[in-house]
Amino acid sequence: PGTVVTRDDIRAGANKLSNLGWFSQVNFKFQGSAKGVEIEFTLQDAASAPLWFDNFPWFTDAELAAAIRASGLLYDGTAPETGTALDAMREALAQLLKTKNIEGDVEGEMVQAPESEGMVERFRVMKTDVRVTSLEFSDALAQTDPSITHSVDTIVGKPYSRYFLAVFLSDQVRPVYTSKGYLRVHFGEPVALFAGDPTKPLANEITLRVTIEPGVLYRWGGATWSGQVVLAGAALDGLLAMKTNEPVDAESLEAGWNRVTREYGRRGYLDVKMDRTPEYHDAEARVTYAVHITEGPQYRMGDLILTGLSLTAERKLLSNWGIPRGDVFDNNYFESFVNDGARRIFQDSTVHFTRVEHLLRPNPQTKTVDVLLNFK
What does the angle CA 346 – CA 351 – CA 352 come to, to the nearest 5 degrees? Predict the structure, then answer.
């Protein structure tokens, strides 16, 4: 306050805010008053993502966050996708590394978050040679299951990365637990322990320890269905094929949900939606599902549009297509035809193709669906 400013000074301030990366839009307006010029900035938040510290075993997350804040940056556990604030965060961590005589640039990239549809900003120390010498689990199942013990070499002997460990836990370890009924297994934050003195520049071997809390072993308590008209609850239960009081195999349950969807697809219901809400009854060690089905319209066969074939080949395919125009559309037949059926039609002919590009074009108004097949 009290500083003499020009329009360019105000614009420079707006540009500085914009360049931080935290804001997708920065606008300003000003007006004169008895006190001088009053400036108002209007900001719109830009996309940000949680910040992952990937391979900083010399520091705790709290120490890394403190180093960012100590540099004068606002930090709430997230980072902008681009901008000077992101650059300043990386520089603050690079300076922290130097306090332990650790050389290496800090780089960031947006990556898919494990077990989530969101993204994370992954900060890594480049050109460091910290390797994992062993991976230890607190729970006996993870220690002895063959599918886990045979796959630990994707982590052991490789450069240390919390991100790749999280992917390993999601893809390799969690399915073992959920297949046995431990549907809400929890993995603690991994602990990295140096084999040598971590204060020395040559300390580059670590042991990873992961705490696993299996939780309740859930048994099947049944599903309650609502919203459906075409299929009765008993028929839906039959498609799920889950046995009451048996441990819930998450993979088998997912296959059951897929069978329900496929049965609707076989009957022409391409827009069916299932809202599945699990209810965990820990005291009884069982899980039930409340399932609401929105069936949508039943589609009938519209036009079959072919490209990439000769006229002779088109006639042969059309004579072998199994859904006449106006009949109820069978999505299961369509998928089988694209994957294998079309190839069988031409297996003894001179027609050759490597793949079939396909598209369904449903029309909710006419309740018909056109099929587009492009032979490549």
Answer: 100
